[in-house]
Amino acid sequence: MGHSQQGVRHKDYTVVPRTLVFALHGDRILLLKGAPEKRLWANLYNGIGGHVRPGEDAATAARREFREETGLELEGLWLCGTILIDTGRKPGVLLFVFRGQVKEDGELRASSEGQPEWIPVDDLYTRPLVEDLYILLPQVLSWKPGDPVFHALYTYDETGRLCVRITTE
User: How many angstroms separate the CA atoms of 106 and 160, rounded?
Assistant: First the structure.
């Protein structure tokens, strides 16, 4: 089906596709501490990911972003959720959330995005996390391959407060 036959209307959502990977190794999770000069989430911990480039599918983009931002390769990668972020204007963001497995630690390297750090899962909530991770991480950490994919909608109320709705299939 060609572009003109897709039925895209201007009043429908338009979204920027992005990926977010939470990789584990034993009882540790790899998070990225945002670089101090980042416009968004400076000095906060987040998963690893970024934009899906033209010609890439979400999994390919997730693996590329992970490699670029950590220097490591993923052994396993599973889609565990999607998040539609309604920014209140066009475009929104469609986030593909992956759970990954790293076979060996390897040598981490920093990027312009920040410094990757292995964090014991038991110490996770003692770190300054990006706002939504306090809700999102329990979903990701409890997810196992073969479980249904979860779906989330992020919106913002009139005060700018994040509102999260999560459903599973």
Answer: 40
- Strand blocks (E) in the chain: 15-25, 28-34, 45-46, 48-51, 76-85, 92-101, 114-120, 150-156, 162-168
Q: For residues 46 and 97, what is the distance between their CA atoms, to the nearest angstrom?
A: 12
- State the pLDDT at residue 11: 67
Q: Give the rounded percent of residues in the chain with a pLDDT score beyond 70.
A: 91
Task: Note the pLDDT tens digit of each residue in 18-39.
Answer: 999 999 999 999 999 999 888 8
CATH number (3.40.50.1820, 3.40.462.10, 3.90.79.10, 3.30.1330.10) of 14-81+94-147 reads 3.90.79.10
